[in-house]
Design a protein that fits this description.
Chain lengths: 574, 280, 319
């Protein structure tokens, strides 16, 4: 007997849902205790499908127009959730079907304590007294391995980190020992090491409670070690489904094959680039240090500094990509911004090659993470591409227009794009416009700050290919800042790992990824999901990133470098 | 621009608001141009306090003057004062807000503290004080209302300008070395047009109310000229005998304010990306 | 540093600014105080008497000296003598303030009692006929200036019941609560109408935004009943902007409502200041405006504190 059996499910939105359909007839089964992964990109209908199961889709303006969702209740009776009344659904939600969402930061009520939000489910769904509910809430927090649970019950959500909040969400979802858990991209908003911890926790919880699970993700690599069955969705339809190994090893549908091969997956340094950099240096950074003042007290006295970037040094050759890898708060983006003078460094030197290519005094250009935010929505593409030229005092003559059109076609956009506005393009196309803009001044170095992170996985792959082509054609040097190990493996010749404001390991990509020497690099690489390491155990490690706030005048110690091979070195550890 | 007009006409509130506003604008322009059924100042001792009739649609007042003609002139007067005062307030306020956000530091502090001082005054008292200094009159009313609403425009410009300043496209501009004036005009001001349009529409509604209030107190438009506030004030002692003297200007003022409020709501829905998503 | 503390620090600065501003502004009003005070009788004054009076009110000094004397007095709690009332300014203000305060409190109670439930009702019945009606009423309420509402109320009362509202001497609530409320109810409804309309619109739109938030979805995923989702999860968040709006409106009402006081012949703070301006009663204008500005800023500060009570993100900011 299946726990859940979905047949020919169709979901539409708006006042005329039949005409505005986003899920076109999805069918699948889930056995008790089984984990089904639904894989797809933006607009595939994967989230809508999952939210149709517990009918949360109703509250977002959606409507099930066809099909059935038959669910077997704990007493063995069967219920069609697609046709159930709201009062019935309130009995099922939270008690029999739990749910975890993508953004832990916004998924908890900011004005209620964490404890109140967990207690509530015990009081409402199980009629417990206030004190019993409080005790149960504490146990629920301990169950998701939150240290010092009793005290944390009194915290407001904003006092906890994203990883902690996602644990709280899991505690809420599992509070009633549900028979089905729906997890909608629960780790996408989190750092990779935190992601590993949450995945580890979910694996353990699955074993402990025997709950069935629907796990929604865009990253097929993430579920490789986790799911029993996989269902791949595209444009609101199921293109392929089956047991995990069968789908991963012998994909039938072209889209599944594409997700498995074209999209970046981490492979321990086996898929690094083989091409060589040019000989001459393009960028040399020495001892770069960035500090942000910390002010406190009534009169905003300067009491200390955040040592955001500490003594960072590296060299970058023409035609070479240096990947800067680290997690949020590591200082990787600050390093990029300091090189562009968007934040003022406290010390260090930055020398860029002025002789090559452009010959303007702006040899370094930047591409930002979010293409929506980095293009002014009120300007045409023509104005956007003209801006760098105007800024350095060049006139927008026929030559300039020729260059704009050349770059647009080079990044794969039609030349009639010039008269259009950013909102007329897709996310991937907008990032191409940003790349074209960065190339207008013929720079020798391009700083790419998480430049593909906001894009869908298959778009990511295409933009990465474009970047490699452009690099080879123009001899560009890339400083590629990212948190994504799979992406950096595809594009970097060399990699620098940053942790707590400093580089802890640097070297050629293949050696560093295959033989990481620093403990942080190892931890990072172990945490990365991989198609090859199926059913891996994710270990739970709650090591906190050290505070970067230091008193005024603090001189940090620089641990000595140790060599691990030709062009591969790491810092000695305490 | 035509696209915006189409969007407004497709929005239910926008359609009603724009229609009402058009009627008022036509009435006001005709009134100010002197194209009225009767001479608004002409007294007729025989036709005093007559109720609405085919000769006098909205009746006559204590001096036998035609209420419709006076209403048209009054609407013209109120709209002129509102447009000029809001024009000045929005221009001054947005320049102050924009420069405060951009230069920050001392300039920001000075501007915003000064605006705090103005905001700490109740609007009508501030206007009254200004009018007693310069003596009542059309241009004094314009100045007084402009000063009252400048702080609001400064605030609604500065807030969004500060957040625009932190947007990536401004950072991108800084990496090319784009000039300050280009960033201020293209990256900040151009993106502030939408929120300011909404604010201007709503401020026009408030300005109409403030102007009418000042005239009601006898400190705005001076008799024998007509204005909505003055007509309401004249109606006070006659309302039992000649209720149309109260109803006509009261409903006219309410509908005029309503037209701007409806239009403002529609523009907010159309121009604000957040509500735009909800509409779609 | 937390936002309320920052506000507290600029408080004296803004008060000083208000003092200087009103001091200069009232002196720019043409005509002199003595003439305005005595009216036609001022013509009977001998130059010597006029000089003595001018010196008595300190008006013979230059502006800097006048300001300094006044400001030093204010710091010691002495706001000077009103030329029209012949009494200390603070006494005059405190005679008129209770009425203004009562009117402001009553209007706010009316506005909140109607506005919040109506706003929530409209939000939870979005796009149904009942929502449309609430929105229309709110729109019309917001578009009708308060003095027009007042005039229409007076008219309807006189036509419908043949009575005029109790005008004349004001009865304090401490003396005769029923007579007082009979006097105050119409002005309070008058001022409460637009206020209530604003509260309806704000609570409706805030509620609609909040109902789309992720954490409301979370609450629903927990199987929390609909009513509890709205009252326990959404409402406290939706109230935050409503508190701000109500605070600002209330702060303005504490400055007196000149027009409504005029219509109902109430001796509130608004008319007192209007008369003082027209009479060139320098000390009273200065004192009253400072008093009003002070109240306005105190109310704003209280709004910030209410904010912190409602929203822990602000409460813990100093951490």
């Amino acid at each position: 007997m299946n726990l859940l059996s979905v047949r020919d499910l169709k979901v539409g939105f708006g006042p005329r849902p039949e005409e505005n359909e986003v899920v076109h007839g999805v069918s699948f089964d889930l056995a008790p205790g089984e984990t089904l992964a639904i894989v797809g990109e933006t607009g595939s209908g994967k989230s809508v499908t999952s939210m149709a199961v517990n009918r949360l889709v109703d509250f977002g303006g959606g409507k099930i127009t066809n099909g059935s969702v038959s669910y077997t209740r704990s007493d063995g009776s069967s219920l069609d959730l697609a046709a159930a009344a709201e009062s019935e659904l309130e009995q099922i939600r939270g008690r029999e079907i739990g749910m975890i969402f993508q953004e832990p930061m916004t998924s908890l009520n900011p004005v209620m304590t964490v404890g109140a939000q967990i207690e509530e489910i015990f009081r409402i769904q199980h009629g417990m007294s206030k004190s019993a509910a409080r005790e149960a809430a504490r146990e629920a927090l301990e169950r998701v391995r939150i240290p010092d649970a009793a005290r944390r019950l009194g915290y407001a959500p904003h006092q906890l980190s994203g990883g902690m909040l996602q644990r709280v969400m899991i505690a809420i979802a599992l509070a009633s020992n549900p028979r089905l858990l729906i997890a909608d991209e629960p780790t996408t908003a989190l750092d990779v090491t935190i992601q590993a911890q949450i995945m580890g926790l979910l694996s353990e919880m699955k074993l402990e409670t025997g709950t069935g699970m629907i796990f929604i993700t865009h990253d097929i690599g993430l579920v490789a070690g986790f799911a029993d069955r996989v269902m791949v969705m595209q444009h609101g339809k199921v293109v392929e489904q089956g047991p995990l190994d069968a789908v991963l090893d012998d994909p039938q549908h072209a889209y599944t094959k594409h997700l498995l091969s074209a999209v970046p997956h981490f492979s321990d340094g086996k898929s690094v680039r083989g091409d060589k950099a040019l000989a001459h240096p393009a960028l040399k950074v020495e001892n770069l240090t960035v500090r942000f003042p910390v002010r406190s007290g009534l009169f905003r006295k300067h009491t200390g500094n955040i040592h955001a970037v500490e003594g960072v040094s590296f060299e970058l050759k023409a035609g070479e990509t240096l990947g800067i890898v680290g997690e949020s708060g590591s200082g990787k983006s600050t390093t990029a911004r300091a090189i562009l003078d968007l934040v003022t460094p406290a010390g260090g030197t930055i020398k860029a090659d002025q002789t090559q290519l452009g010959g303007t005094d702006k040899p370094v250009q930047m591409v930002f993470q979010n293409p929506n935010a980095s293009l002014n929505p009120r300007l045409t593409v023509h104005s956007i591409l003209a801006e760098p030229l105007t800024a350095v005092g060049q006139s927008i003559d026929a030559d300039a227009i020729v260059r704009m059109e050349m770059l647009l076609s080079r990044v794969g956009l039609p030349t009639d794009s010039l008269t259009r506005y950013p909102h007329e393009f897709s996310g991937g196309q907008r990032q191409r416009i940003c790349i074209a803009r960065a190339l207008m001044l013929k720079p020798s170095v391009l700083v790419l700050d998480e430049a593909v992170s906001a894009l869908d996985v298959s778009v990511q792959a295409k933009v990465l290919d474009l970047l490699i082509d452009l690099q080879q054609e123009f001899g560009l040097a890339y400083l590629f800042v990212t948190h994504d190990m799979a992406v950096v493996e595809r594009i970097a010749h060399r990699i620098a790992v940053v942790y707590a404001g400093r580089i802890v390991e640097i070297g050629n990509a293949r050696d560093l990824l295959a033989n990481p020497r620093h403990s942080y690099t190892r931890q990072l690489i172990e945490a990365v999901p991989s198609l090859e390491r199926r059913r891996a155990d994710y270990s739970i490690d709650t090591r906190a990133i050290p505070s970067l706030v230091r008193p005024i005048g603090f001189v940090p110690e620089q641990e000595p470098w140790l060599a691990a091979g030709e062009d591969h070195s790491y810092r000695q550890e305490g | 621009m035509t696209a915006l007009l189409k969007d407004v006409l497709r929005h239910p509130s926008g359609r009603i608001g724009l229609t009402l506003l058009t009627v008022f604008l036509i009435a006001g322009i005709l009134g100010k141009a002197g194209i009225t059924p009767y001479d608004p100042l002409m007294q007729d001792r025989i036709a005093r306090l007559q109720g609405p009739s085919s000769a006098h649609w909205f009746g006559t007042d204590l001096f036998g003057r035609d209420v419709l003609s006076r209403l048209m002139v009054g609407i013209g007067q109120s709209f002129i004062i509102s447009f000029f005062s809001v024009g000045i307030a929005s221009l001054l306020g947005s320049v102050l807000g924009l420069t405060a956000a951009w230069f920050s530091g001392l300039w920001d502090g000075t501007v915003m503290r000064f605006m705090d001082v103005l905001l700490a005054f109740p609007a009508i008292l501030l206007a009254l004080l200004i009018i007693t200094i310069f003596g009542p009159g059309t241009w004094t009313s314009v100045l007084a209302i402009a000063i009252v609403y400048t702080p609001i425009f400064t605030r609604v410009t500065r807030g969004p300008a500060l957040s625009l300043r932190r947007r990536d496209f401004v950072d991108a501009a800084r990496t090319f070395g784009t000039s300050r004036s280009y960033i201020m005009t293209r990256h900040l001001a151009l993106n502030l047009v939408a929120p300011l349009t909404v604010q201007i529409t709503l401020a026009l509604a408030w300005a109409l109310v403030t102007e009418a209030g000042l005239s009601f107190l006898g400190l705005g438009t001076q008799p024998p000229n007509a204005s909505l506030g003055l007509m309401l004030s004249d109606a006070r002692n006659l309302m039992e005998m000649a209720p149309w003297l109260l109803w006509v200007p009261a409903i006219a003022l309410m509908l005029a304010v309503l037209s701007f409020n409806l239009l403002g709501d529609a523009l907010r829905d159309i121009l604000d990306p957040k509500t735009r998503r909800r509409l779609a | 540093m937390s936002y309320p503390i920052k506000r507290l620090l600029v408080f004296p600065l803004v008060m000083l600014g208000v003092s200087i501003f009103v001091f200069i502004a009232i002196r720019l009003v043409p005509g002199d105080a003595i003439t305005a005070m005595l009216g036609t009788e001022s013509g009977l004054l001998t130059p010597k008497q006029r000089e003595a009076l001018t010196a008595y009110f300190g008006l013979d000094q230059n502006w800097f000296v006048q300001f300094w004397r006044w400001f030093a007095g204010v710091l010691q709690g002495d706001f000077g003598i009103s030329t029209t009332y012949g009494k200390p300014v603070m006494t005059v203000i405190l005679e008129h303030f209770p009425l203004t305060l009562e009117l402001a409190v009553l209007s706010m109670l009316i506005a909140l009692a109607i506005g919040i439930p109506a706003g929530i009702y409209a939000a939870t019945h979005k796009d149904r006929p009942s929502d449309l009606i609430v929105r229309m009423v709110a729109m019309i309420g917001q578009s009708t200036p308060s003095f027009v509402v007042g005039l229409l109320l007076v008219y309807m009362l006189s036509v419908g019941f043949g009575v005029l509202p109790e005008m004349g001497t004001f009865v304090p609530i401490t003396e005769d609560p029923i007579a007082n409320l009979a006097q105050m109810i119409l002005p309070a409804i008058t001022l409460g109408t637009a206020f209530a309309a604003a509260v309806i619109r704000m609570s409706r739109s805030a509620m609609l935004d909040i109902l789309q938030e992720d954490y409301v979805r979370t609450a629903r995923s927990k199987g929390i009943p609909r009513r509890r989702v709205i009252w326990r999860h959404a409402l406290p968040n939706a109230l935050i902007p409503v508190v701000t709006l109500s605070g600002v409106e209330f702060g303005y009402l504490l400055g007196g409502a000149v027009l409504v006081e005029q219509i109902f012949a109430l001796p509130g703070l608004g008319r007192t200041v209007l008369d003082a301006i027209l009479q060139r009663d320098y000390a009273l204008v200065q004192g009253a405006v400072l008093f009003i500005a002070f109240n306005f800023m105190v109310v704003n500060l209280m709004v910030d504190l209410a904010y912190a009570a409602l929203d822990p993100r602000i409460r813990f900011e100093t951490k």
